[in-house]
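pinned: reference chain
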Amino acid sequence: MHKADASSIAYSGEAKVLKDYLFHHIEEGEAEIIAKVRELMPAAELKALGEKMMARKKELLAETA
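pinned: its structure tokens
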């Protein structure tokens, strides 16, 4: 991919395949981590963590708006 012309169709196709592979890999990792956290963390603590993460996400989205 590093030798291909960035404006070519081949480069675009390779970039899409790479992006799809990375997103799939990330989703698998997240699923494994979330399952393990659910196993190890009490429900109330997990809920509090989720609320904290959502609040932070809103802050970050507001910064980029």
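why pinned: Residues 9-64 form one domain. DSSP finds two helices and no strands in the chain.
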